[in-house]
Write a structure and sequence with these properties.
11% strand; alpha/beta; five-stranded mixed sheet
């Protein structure tokens, strides 16, 4: 740039201030005609206010977030070797015993009716085994809650550690 083309700094600042003030007030610059048509062909409101949202900052923020995600997500450059077992594994314990309570609050051990004393003795014998079998508890949907609670307490006192509730799907309407 040559010195003849350069304007003095105060002149540039004064012109910039004038342009900003004119843009804020909506009045045309001196020597320029007022235009109510924008570059995209839409009409400018008479008060000079813009009615649409400026989405440029929004797009800038989205692009920054996208770049941060691309950089932040690590590429899969390594893999971890895991030795998986190849054998049959431990067989599932097929020995299980079922305690069933019917609608009349009678207690059954593997389908045979038993008293509370017989149930306690049987559970104590199973708990003493080195490989204790699973004890499954299945009350009927209409069995009394009190009998079920007493039976669970008896099983717990007898020392059973492998204990499972089965048939819970029958009680899905309990609260209704």
């Amino acid at each position: 740039m040559t010195t003849s083309n350069m304007k003095s700094i105060p002149t540039v600042i004064r012109n910039s201030v004038m342009i900003i003030r004119r843009q804020r007030t909506g009045r045309p610059m001196p020597g320029r005609a007022a235009s109510s048509v924008r570059a995209n062909g839409t009409q400018r409101p008479p008060n000079g206010l813009m009615s649409e949202m400026n989405v440029t900052p929004f797009i800038d923020v989205l692009l920054v977030l996208l770049i941060m995600m691309i950089i932040g997500l690590p590429a899969v450059l390594h893999k971890t070797e895991i030795d998986l077992p190849t054998g049959e594994g431990n067989p599932i314990d097929s020995i299980s015993n079922t305690v069933f309570i019917d609608e009349a609050d009678r207690v059954y051990w593997n389908g045979e009716r038993v008293s509370r004393t017989q149930l306690r003795n049987t559970v104590m014998q199973l708990a003493a085994l080195p490989d204790e079998p699973q004890l499954r508890f299945e009350p009927a949907p209409t069995a009394s809650y009190n009998t079920s609670v007493q039976t669970i307490a008896l099983i717990k006192e007898a020392g059973a550690s492998k204990f499972a509730f089965i048939g819970n799907h029958q009680h899905k309407d309990f609260a209704k």
